[in-house]
Specification:
single chain; alpha+beta; 3 helices; 2 strands
Length: about 70
Amino acid sequence: MSSTNLIREAKKNGVRQIVKLSVFQFVGSIGRWHRHEEKIIEEFGIPYTFLRAGAFMQNFISFFGQTIKSQNAL
């Protein structure tokens, strides 16, 4: 189901609030995709909250795992 169809169905079924986990900066293809999704939500007029996280704990292992293991430091 496309994002537009999903939001349309949400509105049709009385959804009162949408919460979307997004990104802090809209760079690269993932950032542009998140912003595109946000715009679709905005256009439908359903109240929304966009959570624009700067980082996620699970990413620390990917980015800092080697340093944590080798230097016992973050």
